[in-house]
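User: Could you check the structure of this?
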Amino acid sequence: MSYLFLSCTEKIDTSDGGSADGSTVDREGYLWNAKVYSGQLVRYRPDGQIDRIIEMPVKKITSAVFGGKNLDVLFVTSMSQPPLPRFPNDNQLRGSVFAIYGLGIQGIADARFMG
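Assistant: Sure, the predicted structure tokens are below.
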């Protein structure tokens, strides 16, 4: 297994108004990042290029993690507070956990915290 570490000068593009928030990695070594305030779940290839973007039903998404029996369900959380006037459509679904099925991608098991 190999790993890619970004240097301190490499950044995730935030020109759409979103900010990089919670991330996870899949079995193919791709990084999934929840871009809070843009509502985009972005999958980055190991070379840093965007592989795909999933538009979520809320703008304030906060984290992503693979789960399910086969680690093939991608769970995405959203921020519940504070309600922001610039995101009126988030009101009904803020603070939700979304499950994305059928991606054909599996995650990797996270190490358990022992301390």
